[in-house]
């Protein structure tokens, strides 16, 4: 009887070990399956929504030029490994806006950045402080993965600034009321501009700390 109990106990222990090992295998298989699905989704996303390249130099050459959000008077210019982000002053370029609200004296807001990596396999331009610039399937640029802030590649030069002397009312209309659309546009520009200033300052502080 004692031998039977020992055999039963040994069998039970062996069964528990096998059961535990089986659970571990199931967990590992689940982790691998999740990782494989994640990789597959990433692979599909990159190859269906982005432009990839054969080399860093090929990507660098292809991405030179001007990219603009014309409705927001905002553009990115890539020259070599240097990037210039510019918020064009609305009153300097939009005649209707200038006539309505007045010609403002402050200049365009210009910020310089540098390409750290031409990630040609993933279609991403990695910068020092602007974050990742994603090259979409049409060769345009998105900041991060935002579909709502796409800079479209264009051969058009920047618009010529308005000569304030040609305005019929350079001081603007004191009674003019800003429309909800204009208010939303201006607030969006100001928020983006503030975020860029903070990102640039954080990058500069990080460089100094290093």
Question: Can you walk me through this structure?
Answer:
The chain is α+β, with helices and mostly antiparallel strands. The protein has five helices and eight strands, in the order ααβββααβββββα. The chain has helices at 2-49, 56-62, 90-93, 95-101, 180-209; strands spanning 65-69, 74-79, 82-87, 109-119, 124-127, 132-135, 141-143, 150-154. It has an eight-stranded antiparallel β-barrel with strand order 1-2-3-4-5-6-7-8. A hairpin with a 5-residue loop joins strand 6 and strand 7 (141-143).
Task: State the gist of this model.
This protein is of the alpha+beta class and 210 residues long.
From the alpha carbons, calculate the radius of gyration and give it in angstroms: 28 Å
Total number of helices: 5
Termini distance?
A: 74 Å
Mean pLDDT: 84
Helix share bin? 40-55%
The number of strands is 8
H/E element string?
HHEEEHHEEEEEH
SS class: alpha+beta
Instruction: Provide the β-strand percentage band.
Output: 15-25%
Strand order of the largest sheet: 1-2-3-4-5-6-7-8
Q: Major beta sheet, specifics?
A: 8 strands, antiparallel, barrel
């Amino acid at each position: 009887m004692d031998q039977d109990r020992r055999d039963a106990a040994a069998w039970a222990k062996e069964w528990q070990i096998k059961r535990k090992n089986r659970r571990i295998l199931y967990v590992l298989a689940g982790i691998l399956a999740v990782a494989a699905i994640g990789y597959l989704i990433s692979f599909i996303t990159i190859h269906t929504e982005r432009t990839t390249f054969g080399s860093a130099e090929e990507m660098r050459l292809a991405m030179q030029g001007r990219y603009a959000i014309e409705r927001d008077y905002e553009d990115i210019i890539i020259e070599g490994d240097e990037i210039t982000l510019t918020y064009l002053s609305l009153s300097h370029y939009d005649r209707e806006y200038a006539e309505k609200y007045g010609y403002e004296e402050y200049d365009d807001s210009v910020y310089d950045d540098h390409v750290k990596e031409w990630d040609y396999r993933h279609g991403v331009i990695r910068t020092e402080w602007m974050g990742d610039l994603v090259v979409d399937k049409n060769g345009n640029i998105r900041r991060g993965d935002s579909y709502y802030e796409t800079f479209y590649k264009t051969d058009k030069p920047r618009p010529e600034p308005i000569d304030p002397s040609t305005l019929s009312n350079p001081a603007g209309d004191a009674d003019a009321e800003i429309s909800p659309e204009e208010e939303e546009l201006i607030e969006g520009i100001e928020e983006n501009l503030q975020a860029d200033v903070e990102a640039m300052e954080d990058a500069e502080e990080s460089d100094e700390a290093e």
